Protein: 4-hydroxy-4-methyl-2-oxoglutarate aldolase
Amino acid sequence: MSFATTDLCDDHPELLEDGRLAVLPPLFTHYGRQLRFCGSVTTLKVFEDNALVRATLEAPGNGNVLVIDGGASLRRALVGGQLALLAQNNGWSGIVVDGCVRDSDEINACAIGVRALGTHPRKSSKLGAGERNVRICVSGVAVQPGDWLYADADGIVVAQQKLA
Structure:
């Protein structure tokens, strides 16, 4: 996997201009052993409930990135150490959470890339509410299933097509 988010922005100014390439605001903290990750996007829209997150990560990831619109909630964690390990073992490239994670030491031991707004010790509810593979909005940026997400030390970009 050879890309740099800075180069993707520099090489595709027309995509930035017309919105086919977008940069997520620098609000996300890195967790997990993979600082750099990319893949086709699978989306979830949930709020303080991670039953659908677990169900999604139990399926083969095929190198995809799970992007979770958690409503930017800072009141509960949507991903913990068990789910990060599940994602790693099932071939997910990474997870981006517009919300919180927990068990950060366990996540940091996993060979996966995770970005989240922060950590929170409280677990989520398990009601199964939410939607999968729908258009979501993460920190003001529209993300659709099948978009491509690229994350590295400089940031996170989302493209409507594979760029690297």
